[in-house]
Amino acid sequence: MFRYTKLTAVREVIVWVITLMMLLPLYMLVVGAFKTTEETLTTSAITPPSSLDFTAFVEVLTSTGRNSIPMSILNSVLITAGSVAGLVLLGSVAAYVIARRTRHWTTWVYYLVLIAIILPAQLGTVPLYIGARTVGLTGSVLGMILLWTGILLPLSIFLYAGFFRGLTTEYEEAAVIDGATPTQAFFRVVLPLMAPATGTVAILAGLIIWNDFFNSLIFLGGSTVQTLPVAMYTYVGGLVSAWNKIFAVVIISMIPILAFYMFAQKKFIQGFAGGLKG
């Protein structure tokens, strides 16, 4: 039987203190975004605003030019969604072949995938940039989609392969007996069972791509196409004292990825737990 003791109370107090300390930066971010420029300079970071002021959000969302926040959000969404779609499609198919084929070469391919995950992607930045510039893929959404699909494909294959190895072959065998082709059995039977793995791949890859600054700065530098982290950097550099606008940009950048996580969190948790239930 559980007994509430002094030790339990001390533990609860410690947990609450740690939680409040972790939430303090988020509180300062939200509070600062709703302050006027004058208030951000004259009041403490933890002082609530005298009144909710949406001027920073309005000015940021109505900005124009090469570093327009609305256009940067659109570019980030297109790049992230396109890359995730490519990773799910190519990663699942490649992992299925590696997991289901018993030939010797599939083992070596799997080891190469592991090596590709371990090696830093920055090692290939220069040859990748030269190649992309040669074929005209720098400064474009399509080029970034192809870049991220190639960089994160080993991770996608690795995650899917682990799930396919834990899935019995009875599902696709039953589908083939019912008259389905191997392709139909994969896309209509096997892949839907991989929803937890798909959620894991989508969230992990989506977070990496959405928050990327280095590759976007290198491969989109000097073009009219900019992603949200790069556009946010120009605000930090150009509006040193207008912290309310900087905080507003940060909050706006958090909303899409948080919404996506809330939508796919069930599959994401199942993916980490290794479950196959939909």
Examine the coordinates and then state which fold CATH places here, giving the name of the CATH topology: MetI-like fold
Number of helices: 13
User: What is the overall shape?
Assistant: globular
Number of strands: 0
The CATH first-level class comes to: Mainly Alpha
Radius of gyration: 24 Å
How many strands, which pairing sense, and closed or not: the largest β-sheet? none
How much is the average pLDDT?
A: 84
Helix content: over 70%
- Per DSSP, what share of the residues sits in E-state strands of 2 or more residues? under 5%
CATH architecture annotation name: Orthogonal Bundle
Low-confidence stretches: none
The ordered string of helix (H) and strand (E) elements is HHHHHHHHHHHHH
**CATH-defined superfamily:** MetI-like
Give the number of domains.
Answer: 1
Distance between the termini: 36 Å
In terms of structural class, how would the helical and strand content be classed? Answer: mainly alpha
InterPro entries: MetI-like, MetI-like_sf
Organism: Microbacterium aurantiacum
Subcellular location: Cell membrane
GO cellular component, one term: plasma membrane
